[in-house]
Request: fold
Amino acid sequence: MPFLSEQPTAAGVAELFLGTPGVELDEANPENRFRLEWIDTVTALLDEAVSGGAKAVVITATGKFFTNGLDTDYIATNAADLPAYLDRVHALYRTVLTLPVPVIAAVNGHAFGAGAMLALCADHLVMRTERGFWSLPEAALGMPFTKGMASLVRTRLTDRAATEAMLTSRRYGADDAVAAGIVDEAVPTTDLLARAAEVAAARAPLAGPTQTLIKQGLRQPLLADLAVPTPPSLL
Reply:
């Protein structure tokens, strides 16, 4: 299950793990997929980090997956609830995009689909070099993007990178992701959390309500698209 470090560091940095820290494959949710209770827990932990005094948040995980995206098992058995489910995913994105503290993603493993988009919600992205891909597999799976998700990718990436990522389902390793402008840095596994924490600590003095106001102004069209209810006709 998602886990928040008990206390921020001396620099005010809190670490939010998308699965159990130190566990290669969390039995409760092996791929850190967007299960409904997982979404609720991650959202609550982000709120807890801020209310607990964190000045910056590092979002990461342990092992093979950062997050493998949507809960496909839930979707397969709850088709009628898909629009409401996707709206919950969009709400999590909006939360990350507007936190009053700097948010750093430390991408430790595969970030696919909705998980790849969650990483894009961070203010700065650091990705490990040895293992793991960032990918949007929707085209290969025959799945469309919601208006909000398309806006997120289009807003956060260049048009050339978004076009390739969305239309080809390419899998980007860390170095290729840096070259495409998807992530900011590629570092060895042993340096991943330390580098993310270093960036977070450098930005921590900027935390406060003004951060949210600036993020809302910077990302207003994106936030508006993410707030649009998903139509039942999506699929």
User: Anything to note?
Assistant: The longest strand covers residues 13-17.
